[in-house]
Amino acid sequence: MKNIILIISFFLFTIGTASAQSRFDQDKATVSIYPNPASSTFTIKFDNPTKVNSVSVYSIIGNEVMNKKMDGTARVNFNIQTLKKGKYIVRVFNDDGTTETQSLIKN
Questions:
Q1: Which residues are paired to 52 by β-bridges?
Q2: For residue 54, what are the domain limits?
């Protein structure tokens, strides 16, 4: 009897955790960057654009080289022709205070 209660409790806990996780994932902005590597422009596509506040691009040593305030659009283009070749960090700032970070290669 104890084993059955333990199994049912574990099953209910697992279901509750999975549904809470999926709701949390839906609230994130989840981004895609393409093309990567890029030479003149790159595009960021947002799965949930209404959650995004701004996007910043940083050099590998941490200097901010670009910043755009977002307005709920699903895609935004960045012109990077003036940037030097190398690795950059793209950081998406969400309305809830969380951030998402991805690397970008400029060739």
A1: 94
A2: 29-106
